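re: ur msg from earlier - yeah i can do the zinc ion complex, just paste it... oh wait u already did. ok heres what im feeding in:
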Amino acid sequence: MTEELEILWALHGLDDQIATLQGALKRHASERAGLDQRLQAERVHLETHKQRVAALQLKRRELEREIETLGAEERKFQSQLPMVKKNEEYTALLTEIKGAKAKRSDRETDLLVLMEEEDQASRERPVVERALAGIESEANSRRREIDAEEGGEKEQVASLEAERSSLMGRLPVPTRSRYERIRASKDGRAVVAIVKGACGGCFRGQPPQVLQEARRGDRLLLCDGCGRLLIWPPDVPSPTP
Ligand SMILES: [Zn+2]
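and the outut:
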């Protein structure tokens, strides 16, 4: 194998590791986004709950005021009863009193239903809060784990990149730019091994001529299928022809 091919083969190994690490970094980013989404949903849940309780309290105060007003009305009519002289006025007043009483009784029933609902909601509140706290602490500890893993992975990428650029410096400029061009368009993998007579990137079977040349390892070969550089892996013994 020529020195150029040896360097390319070494780059292939580094790029494979970098691509794997970058895949892991991407997964971490999407896991983090998933955690944020869960947290957000739980926060919205608590907020909605608070708003519901506030609406119930407001409605309860309205009902209490209404009941008070109806009671005052009733007492006012009651106080007028002894002063009424005519029979029909008396009857009319009694009807008013009856009406106010019935209305008040209805509002009181509404109030009881509402208080029951409010009570129920206030018992749910700690459950919702605990759920949020649980998810918060779970998300925080998972985030710390992700941060630690990510830190390690980023360090590894940096050291692989450094190794990569020193190898790159040893390649002839045309090969270097060709390599980088392919690498950029083929998700981080410019060089692939020939596996069982086929391109290890796109699995296209290679003609015997190409396989022979690859085994000799004296020049750069391209896969017609995917455009990547093909190398006969040095650690795989060439089959005896
Ligand atoms: Zn290919």
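cool cool. The two ends are 18 Å apart (CA to CA). ping me if u need the other ligands too
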